[in-house]
Design brief:
Elements (H helix, E strand, L loop, with lengths): L3 H6 L1 H11 L4 H36 L3 H36 L20 E6 L12 H8 L2 E2 H7 L6 E2 L2 H19 L4 E3 L4 E3 H7 L11 E2 L4 E3 L4 H5 L5 E3 L6 E10 L18 E11 L4 H19 L3 E5 L11 E9 L4 E4 L3 E3 L3 H6 L1 E3 L8 E2 L1 E9 H11 L7 E2 L13 E2 L3
Parallel strand pairs: 4-9, 8-15
Antiparallel strand pairs: 1-11, 2-3, 5-7, 6-7, 9-10, 10-17, 11-12, 12-13, 12-14, 14-17, 15-16, 18-19
Helix pairs in contact: 3-4, 5-12, 7-12
Length: 425
């Protein structure tokens, strides 16, 4: 959520931000109108309260009964005005709050201006895609041929985009997230969290999934909880409504969770394979930092995601997302994309974002710079480290051999019981 002072002091900045995102600017006028009404009600209420206080003093000082009753009647009438004003104030505060929840973050000034994903900017690449002396296959063909993934039975159990990992395929998935967690904890300095998978509405509001992305989340109306769409939601909200004491920042968490998304609006993209599914595993990195350090922390966050790809020997590139594709909550976002040899394209495998104080304001996460200092909002960041299923797919496509087998990356072999080659059946 944006600070209302930004609308009052520089509405042009918000309009410009929305225009660069390709969104309507009409909401700015709505915010300013409701804010002006609210401030007027507050001013009027203060004035009426002051008058009531004067009348109360006059009542005490007046001896004549009729005059005293007249003053009391005026005071009571003004009291009714106050009640109505408070009701109007409460209504307007709620309307303004609900409106503010729908307004996206302001992109950082260095974010490239663009309409959509086609205008994202590539900032670097690592490693050249491998040249095969045979026609490389996509992961779904490799996996089915090896018998390590079963799409048919997965669809039978769940429906569209369902799948089950089998044998060495399941073990590779498990090896990946265990290894990723170990790297982030031991080498990158994160504290591991195993968070709840079910989250309250307030938690999803806090990180910005609600209200905008309600259709993309699975909801249980009986318990009034959502299945987590990403570990970002439960992990960030661990510190909701808290004031963090001096010296504790930065806080760095990593978490493995299964994530659940309806994929409403994904259209016909990535219908085959495990790239875009309703249930998937992901290792997430979440940071709470001081505002002055948040962009340096973003660089290290991206570096941590890249380190996982480099250790696996997977070619990738990093994109800086443009204003039309930076996401609702982010001020800046980088997407590492892994090379998929069997599909001859790069595919997003991580998103690393700096939200500045956007989430912290929604979730009310603050810190004290010093013991006697006034609390300030933290900056929050998060990034995938990595999407496990997509990493699984990238290994199959980049490490496939002519006979259909798949080489296990060296760093994963201790987690695979020493297995060097996946032969499946």
């Amino acid at each position: 959520m944006l600070d209302i002072k930004r609308f009052r002091d520089n509405p042009a900045e918000i309009r410009d931000s929305l225009q660069k995102r390709g969104e309507s600017t009409e909401v700015v006028e709505e915010v300013l109108r409701r804010d002006a009404e609210l401030r007027q009600i507050k001013a009027n209420t203060e004035q009426v309260n002051a008058t009531i206080n004067k009348l109360s003093k006059q009542v005490r000082d007046t001896k004549e009964a009729a005059a005293k009753q007249e003053l009391i009647a005026k005071s009571r009438a003004m009291g009714e005005e106050i009640k109505q004003a408070e009701a109007d104030r409460s209504r307007l505060e709620n309307e303004l709050y609900q409106l503010m929840l729908t307004i996206p973050n302001v992109p950082h000034s260095s974010v490239p201006v663009g309409k959509d994903e086609n205008e994202n900017v590539e900032v670097r690449r690592w490693s050249e895609p491998k040249h095969f002396d045979f026609e490389p296959k996509p992961h779904w063909e490799i996996g089915e041929n090896l018998g390590i993934v079963d799409f048919e039975r997965g669809v039978k159990v769940f429906g569209n985009r369902g799948y089950a990992l089998v044998g060495q395929g399941a073990r590779l998935e498990r090896a990946l997230f265990n290894w990723m967690l170990d790297v982030h904890v031991s080498d990158h300095g994160y504290t591991e969290i195993y968070p709840p998978y079910l989250v309250k509405r307030e938690a999803a509001l806090g990180t910005g999934q609600l209200p905008k992305f309600a259709e993309e989340m699975y909801y249980d109306p009986i318990q009034e909880v959502y299945l987590n769409p990403t570990a970002e939601v439960p992990v960030t909200n661990l510190h909701a409504q808290e004031i963090l004491e001096p010296g504790v920042l930065p806080i760095k968490y990593c978490a493995f969770t299964t994530c659940f998304r309806t994929e409403t609006g994904s259209g016909g993209r990535d219908k085959r394979g495990v790239v875009r599914v309703h249930q998937f595993n992901k290792v997430e990195m979440v940071k709470f930092v001081e505002p002055s350090t948040s962009y340096a922390e973003l660089e290290s966050l991206v570096s941590n995601a890249e380190d996982i790809l480099q250790r696996l020997g997977l070619p990738y590139r990093v994109l800086k997302m443009c204003t039309g594709d930076v996401g609702f909550t982010a001020a800046m976002k980088f997407d590492p994309e892994v090379w998929m040899a069997g599909q001859n394209k790069y595919v997003e495998i991580s998103s690393c974002s700096n939200f500045e104080d956007f989430q912290a304001r929604r979730a009310n996460i603050r810190y004290r710079p010093a013991l006697d200092a006034k609390p300030e909002f933290v900056h929050t960041l998060n990034g995938s480290g990595l999407a496990v299923g997509r990493t699984w797919a990238a290994i199959l496509e980049n490490y496939q051999q002519a006979d259909g087998s798949v080489i296990v990356p060296e760093v994963l072999r201790p987690y695979m019981g020493g297995l060097e080659i996946i032969t499946g059946k």
